[in-house]
Amino acid sequence: MNSPHHPSEPKADKAGVRRHNLSLVLRTVHEAGETTRAAVAARVGLTRAAVSSLAEQLLERGLLVESGKTFSGQAGRPGTVLKPACTGPAGLGVEINVDYVNVCVADLTGADRVRRSVPLDNRALAPVVVLRRAAELTAEVLAEASRQDLHPTGVRLALPGLVSGGTVRQAPNLGWNRVDADVLFAEALAAARPPGAPALPVASDNEANIAALAELWFGALGAVRSFLLVTGEIGVGGAIVLDGELLRGAHGFAGEIGHLTVAPDGRRCRCGSLGCLEQYAGQTALLRAAGARSVDTLTERAVAGEPRALAALDEAGRMLGVALSGAVNLLDPQAVVLGGIFPRLMPWLAPAAEAELSRRVVSALWPSSAARLRPASTTATTARGAAALVLRDILADPLTYGG
Amino acid sequence: MNSPHHPSEPKADKAGVRRHNLSLVLRTVHEAGETTRAAVAARVGLTRAAVSSLAEQLLERGLLVESGKTFSGQAGRPGTVLKPACTGPAGLGVEINVDYVNVCVADLTGADRVRRSVPLDNRALAPVVVLRRAAELTAEVLAEASRQDLHPTGVRLALPGLVSGGTVRQAPNLGWNRVDADVLFAEALAAARPPGAPALPVASDNEANIAALAELWFGALGAVRSFLLVTGEIGVGGAIVLDGELLRGAHGFAGEIGHLTVAPDGRRCRCGSLGCLEQYAGQTALLRAAGARSVDTLTERAVAGEPRALAALDEAGRMLGVALSGAVNLLDPQAVVLGGIFPRLMPWLAPAAEAELSRRVVSALWPSSAARLRPASTTATTARGAAALVLRDILADPLTYGG
User: Fold this and answer.
1) Structural domain of residue B296, as residue ranges?
2) Torsion angles phi and psi, residue B176, rounded to 5
3) Co-location of B371 and B232 in the same domain
4) Are both A366 and A225 inside the same structural domain?
5) Which of A129, B58, B79, B250 is geometrically suited to a Cys-Cys bond with B63, CB 3.0 to 4.6 A?
6) Average pLDDT, integer, range A50-56
7) Higher confidence at residue A191 or residue A77?
8) ipTM attached to this prediction
């Protein structure tokens, strides 16, 4: 990202250069958290004067704020600190999963400022009803955000299925096929919001993809930039991040590890195939095998050493390990992150999964590498990741959103 | 690649700018096959005068040649055609597989100008002996190349195993463990070449990785830039190309689809795991199941409708389909390319593999997409790909190699 447009380059028109460089300065401040004009200039390769002028425009539009005095680390000269604004333009994320809806507003710094979560059995409801409930919750969150002087510029929906061009092509665990989520949610939100409130653009994406970006942006991955995320929900979702970028694939459907075959002639899956991972390690399959009604119950029984619970977790861990071995052999990632219900079940799942990985990953790379199973960070929620995707649009083109 | 360095950018020293821009012009001509100075200038965003000066230096060093007159498409004015030289600096590739060695010299245009292939059962020989035989064959090829005024600037080895930092970490089908292939081959080549011949730098890589690059550069993929390559050899190799770049992974070992589990409690593999794909679809496994001694025999029997041959091919195709379904669900590639022994077996392998893909790939994307199984191109040999990797070094820094 940190490459300025120079007027000497061909076909770079003046307005385009300004737009690009405003974004460059805003993204640089955003990445740093707080910094000085001099440090920005050094980082992006523009003159100090150019950066000052660009920063002024961003301050005027309320995208940056200025505070205090500091000493720039590099030059030893005093400079005013620039930060992203923590009021004004914001992002709104909505995670619609099989048994709950989460909504989050993040300010331009990425902080999650408003959060709402409601349990909702979305399998029992028509898509249009689910989207209406989610829109109603979103309208409440928007009202609360407005009281905090936060004004989302768009909505990102996270959905547990194959999403492309605003449509949920297939979400087997929701029972959705070809649902125009973007349009239906936007209509429902328009109906739920106070009259006169501006319409917000809505865009949908796969929930595991967004969870992976949340982990990248808000997790505890350190230097890890290439990883596989596997989320245990009613089904099993997955996403792949390579060098800090989501792998979307040719049709936008990459990362579907939940439907990797772990037993070619095994249990029938809702997707139509046989022996998919999620029929062994998804929440529904796991609870059924354990004879437990909730993950809380399962955890209690596992703590108590109940044999059926332990056997179910061991089998799920084993199948998870078989599927992960395949993914690790293909992708050779720096890390494998487990999200959703998996982190709290890791004491029982992980040993069986690690045993399979040690045995099945070529060159016995697994145990000796840094790529061990690790739990997703609790601060890196999918709804926050969705909100941050809206922020990314603001950062990419500040002129459209600021002021 | 097509971004010129401008003197206005920070820290771009003059020699570095010249080096970068020489490479830019050479790569642009190489990509075009033949083009004019004016077209290069328009493409890369440098002035016509700057491109002319850079082209002059590349002509003097023998990296470009000039021929005839033409009309530039864009401006309608006459311009001399520039092409990469077809004598002088060249690349040399060596594929050492389990039962053969292939050597190829490619000129700067990418054309394969000298080719040698010898059958060699490398399982029966010590690594140092295999590398010596390959070096002797290489010395013969170098002598022939020299007669054609082609002078390779380096050697790239393609090996069927996990390669990192010049060492074969593990090549189960060769029986190699921690073999310093680069050093051993360079020593053997120094001994085999005529006295006084210059030493050549040697670098090793995984054979499937190189086969995938060969397919990308010399195959018939059209607009496909993201694909999975699976090569049937004694074992089964694999490589992943995303947006025209090889996915190497955190340790350089990505793409190992041969060790994807297709039957968790299945046949023991040489890698130490159970139920790896190559125990069902690799050449050794396939011939054993068919009771055939060679792929030629197997093909003849399949043509004749011999039930055991057909059953073995159907089972291999089925397992290949199970593994490919997993890879397609994870990667969502534009295409899956089958190489090695698979192309000529596709009439029997492909139907079973396609059936599994239709059933197991989520959203039934498989049959409706362009991502069907396709055979590797016969012109895209691994040895040629290896030679082209040497060319890439020349293109990246022409000053080091030209003249």
Assistant:
1) 221-375
2) -95, 140
3) yes
4) yes
5) B58
6) 95
7) A191
8) 0.86
